[in-house]
Amino acid sequence: MIKRAAVMALVGLMALATGAFADEGKDESGKGKQRDEERKRHEGSSSYFHQHGYTRIPDGHLPPPGECRVWYPDRPAGHQPPPFKCSEARGRVEPGGWLISPGPQPKEVEVAVYDARRPGVVIDVGIFDARTGSMIRIVGTK
Q1: Do 57 and 36 have their domain in common?
Q2: Which residues neighbour 136 within 8 Å (Cβ) at sequence distance 6 or greater?
Q3: Alpha helix (H) ranges present in 19-142?
Q4: Which end of the chain is more exposed for a tag (fewer CB within 10 A), N or C?
Q5: Which stretches does the entry tag as region Disordered (predicted)?
Q6: pLDDT of residue 98
């Protein structure tokens, strides 16, 4: 009986001591504090893309190289206006639309988000991969 109590005490002490060797970079979920901190940073982000979750443009709907396209995130892909020459972009974007234009690097496109209530006012800008449509980074308004 004394032997069993001694073993149980030893196991208890080892369990308490194990916490001291825990990985500081990990949280309880095992995903790590860095990811948790990044998530919290984006939760408070004022970026249009983070607030609305629009982080991808559907395959086959990016404009051809050197052209622009207006995209309305609340409309189905088949109901979007066709691509056009970027020099014709002025006044084409209705409130709440996106203007997709060539990006700062080859194989990138820039997406300017227009305010839903104030015509002609850009509220956010993001850079997307022209091959996949996935978001690369948010650059904000210029």
Answers
A1: no
A2: 108, 126, 127, 128, 129
A3: 33-43, 48-52
A4: N
A5: 23-60
A6: 93
Element (H, E) at 17: helix 2-18
| 77 and 99 inside one domain | yes
DSSP designation for 16: H
Find all residues with CB under 8 Å of 68, minimum gap 6, and list them. 83, 84, 85, 86, 88, 89, 99, 100, 101, 102
3-state SS, one letter per residue, for 41-52: HHHCCCCHHHHH
pLDDT of residue 85: 95
Distance, CA of 90 to CA of 93 (rounded, Å)? 8
Q: Among 92, 85, 81, 80, which residue's Cα sits nearest to residue 68?
A: 85
Q: For 32-53, how does the pLDDT look when each residue is reduced to its tens digit (9 = 90+)?
A: 444 444 344 444 456 777 676 6
For residue 131, the enclosing domain spans 47-142
Helices (H), 19-118: 33-43, 48-52
- Verify that 51 and 39 share a domain, yes or no: no
